[in-house]
Hints:
Elements lengths: L13 H9 L6 E5 H5 L11 H7 L8 H33 L10 E7 L5 H12 L8 E5 L7 H6 L14 H12 L5 E7 L4 E10 L4 E5 L25 E6 L2 H17 L17 H24 L8 E5 L5 E7 L2
Parallel strand pairs: 2-6, 2-7, 3-6, 7-8
Antiparallel strand pairs: 1-9, 4-5, 8-9
Amino acid sequence: MISPVSEPPAPRSATSRSAHRQRPEATPYVDLTRSEWSALRDKTPLPLTAEELERLRGLGDVIDLDEVRDIYLPLSRLLNLYVGATDGLRGALNTFLGEKGTQSGTPFVIGVAGSVAVGKSTVARLLQALLSRWPEHPRVERVTTDGFLLPTKELEARGLMARKGFPESYDRRALTRFVADIKAGKDEVTAPVYSHLIYDIVPGRKLTVRRPDILIVEGINVLQPALPGKDGRTRVGLADYFDFSVYVDAKAEDIERWYLNRFLKLRATAFQDPSSYFRKYTQVSQEEALDYARTTWRTVNKPNLLENVAPTRGRAGLVIRKGPDHKVQRLRLRKL
Length: 336
């Protein structure tokens, strides 16, 4: 018996092969160049002056009004749209619940993450300033996670001073509870206050947040997933309360250079204060001071970046990628 033989498939034309090769790879993100992103600001006006920007800019950050116009105005427009859409969803839920219960407005919470010295504080301050100019949500508060670092005495008792900034150096439960209470709509929520001057929590001082329209939570570890409890069960994490999140990204070697440059500028300014924890580095040569900064980067900040901070980048709604000159080059926006 002769086995039947199938005819070989007809060869695809060169045109069809080319079309197959050019089909874009499926991805959960929209990747945008700086110019593509800038075009999305529509007709959003620039509400900041050069003087206001100077006050918002972090030490060593070279951001200018063009950067604000190209990057942060489109972002403020996007976030304004998100806030409005969230209000619409809340109305839909209230309609569904009917007489069983309704939700009043609760703050829209934004997380801003990234390495030490990458410029995330400037991003958070800019967003606060820009978002508060929108008439729909004039009350915008900003909180840094520094206030939830364990006090120096506690860090020393636990042997964690050399790991300050790592996830275990924070009171993560208190931080999560703080944001949960704000998200729940409590009238008044307080947080500890941290001083970079004394490098510690300020005893007796509290930051009070009273029902903002938008809350911005800024810190290196804000996108960390929740740790399992002692019973092995997964807990609710800080990022679970975020309505949107931003990760400020750059190459580690660029961040290291920015960190060292910022250290030298602080050495010439804030470290000169007699109350400064770091004043001792103004009493030695610049090279000795830089050796300390390099060691800190190599043994603390870089390991924390690689082990804990950078792995959370994929959890962000938007990744802002900076180039060697601190200018934003590309952006990656998560699809819905």
